[in-house]
Amino acid sequence: MWELARDSGVLEPNSSYAYLMFAKFFAETCVLAVENGKPVGFVTGFIPPKAPQTLFVWQIGVSATHRGQGIAKEMLRRLLQRQGQHKVCFLEATVSMSNGASQALFTSMAKEWGTSCTVAECFSADVFPEEAHEAEWTYRVGPIPIQSKGGYA
Questions:
Q1: Which of 18, 24, 36, 55 is most exposed, with minimal Cβ within 10 Å?
Q2: How do residues 87-119 score in pLDDT, each as one tens digit?
Q3: What 3-state class would DSSP assign to 97?
Q4: 37 φψ region: left (φ > 0), alpha (ψ -120 to 50), beta (else)
Q5: Which part of the chain is the N-acetyltransferase domain (predicted)?
Q6: Which positions ≥6 away from 32 have C-beta within 8 Å?
Q7: How far apart are CA 76 and CA 127, in angstroms?
Q8: SS3 59
Q9: pLDDT band at residue 149, thresholds of 50, 70 and 90?
């Protein structure tokens, strides 16, 4: 996951330790897409303790050669199918205004599920210690309709 993030050219890579921690301690809320034994995409996420019905997506990465093939959307679908027993019915992520791909992904998921996607500022630009860091906006999709078989619509 760290290599995919580092090599993406678009993601803000976290430390390698952070990805190892996600893989070990949050494996239930992470997905790795593999093709021919090689990772081509990942989603890292967690369920916030104060919001047990929400899956918060920390990061989504897809290799440059595999973008535009629906891999991110499929990883989110599979990840949510795993969360059925936890009664997760909201999907959240923070997205910067320059990240059109993530904006399109979350609004498209809302449309696919026939639900809403609300957007609200989460972190203003002035709270980041780095200069020129964009504000991060919370994209909240849901409620996500859960089918009776435990899967998501």
A1: 36
A2: 899 999 999 999 999 999 999 999 999 999 999
A3: coil
A4: left
A5: 1-147
A6: 1, 39, 41, 42
A7: 29
A8: strand
A9: very low
41: closest CA among 52, 25, 54, 57? 57
Q: How would you class 41 by CB atoms within 10 Å of its CB: exposed for 0-12, middle for 13-18, buried for 19 or more?
A: buried
In single-letter form, the type of residue at position 134 comes to E
Does residue 49 have a cis peptide bond before it, meaning omega lies within 30 degrees of 0?
A: no
User: C-alpha 145: how far from its chain's center?
Assistant: 18
Residue 132 binned pLDDT confidence (cut-offs 50, 70, 90): confident
What pLDDT is stored for residue 148 in this prediction?
39
Q: Which of 44, 39, 102 is nearest to 65 (CA)?
A: 39
> Using one digit for the tens of pLDDT, what is the confidence trace for 17-58?
999 999 999 999 999 999 999 999 999 999 999 999 999 999
Angstrom distance (rounded) from CA 107 to CA 67 = 17
Token pair 């995409």 in the structure block, residue: 41
